[in-house]
Amino acid sequence: MQAPDGVTPTLESLHNKVVTLLFWSPTCENCQAEFPHLLKLMSDMPADRFAFVGVVNAPAKEVKDFLQDNPMPGWVGIDKDWSMVRSYAAPGTPFAVVINRRGLVAAFTHPSQLSPEALERVWDGGVPNIEIGTPLGWQPRSWRDAPPLYEMSISPASPTHAAVVRNGALFAARSAPLRDLFAKAYGVPASRVVSNTFLLDAAYDVTIAPKPGLTNEQAVKTNIQALRQLLESVFPVRKRPMTQEMDVYLLSAVSTSPMGIHPSQAAGASLKDNGDGFVVRGFTMLQIAERLTKALDRPVVDDTGLEGRFDAAFTFKKGDIASVLASAQRLGLVVAPAHVPVQVFSVERGDMAPTPLPDP
C-alpha 70: how far from its chain's center? Predict the structure, then answer.
């Protein structure tokens, strides 16, 4: 209902728009309470970039009568057989699903969480900083005191929660970006994971508890294999290494023995993040480059040529790029912008052709 004349009401016909699916019902009082907010949101968002589609499981006449008394812009689809509810795992009404310009789901949430800022972030290709939720107020589960005897699970998580990944006898990731999960599973730096068909910033909760009786070392190895199996079971993955031109920072050293970077005698690798920088023990330069990547706005590529493991302390103001670069310089390192070919790890959906983000 309410689609423009001559337009086939399909997702493909909304190409290069951010589409918000709004699951509601004419008899849902909570839905009606959200309508004033949604009407304002619809009027605020430019129609050439954003579209809203209501999804209703009710007789067509009942929906038409309701809309006559409660006008609401946007398309309205009648979900006769509940197939849309099943496809998008909508737990009830009201509920919203935001789909980005690639046709990938960027958010599941309560309509009250939608805002112009959140939708603009989806337009830019990102994940909106909003709570995942349902009409019942479900939140991602917290860490459990006792680990399960055996479990492999993955579920969408709230992007507003801090990402945590623990890989011990129990592998547990909370609000971990899909990029980090692919990196952990395939043993590649997270900054080098690229995709045109996966929303790599989407956050997930993952739990893998191996079968009882394994040593901790065996469990860690088994968990990584299980993570790869879990990802490939849920996502039809097509993967390959490739070279891609990227905006990066090149990490180089002013000398073969940069001051502040000391050869390590540590038995293993450790990291201490103290809020105003970080301290590493037993890190390779590749690992230091990856840690600097988390503090900067683009990948850091190791071009130092330094072999072995090192200890170092970086002190900078969080979120201040100039401060991060100055911290590296104080240690005898140079971090300089560059646009160069970089070895990356491409992961694509095996059942989809790559669809790059269209130009605005």
Answer: 36
Do residues 247 and 191 touch, judged by C-beta distance below 8 A?
Answer: no
pLDDT in tens, 250-309: 999 988 888 889 999 988 889 998 878 999 999 999 999 999 998 998 899 999 999 999
Cα–Cα distance measured from residue 45 to residue 48, given in angstroms and rounded to the nearest whole number: 9
Pairing of β 171-177 and β 164-167: antiparallel
* Distance separating alpha carbons of residues 305 and 48, to the nearest angstrom: 50
CATH code of the domain made up of 12-123: 3.40.30.10
Residue 115: burial class (beta carbons within 10 Å; 0-12, 13-18, 19+): middle
Every domain of the chain and the residues it spans: 12-123, 151-235, 244-345
Instruction: Report the distance separating Cα 168 and Cα 177, nearest Å.
Output: 19
Are 94 and 34 within 8 A, CB to CB?
Answer: yes
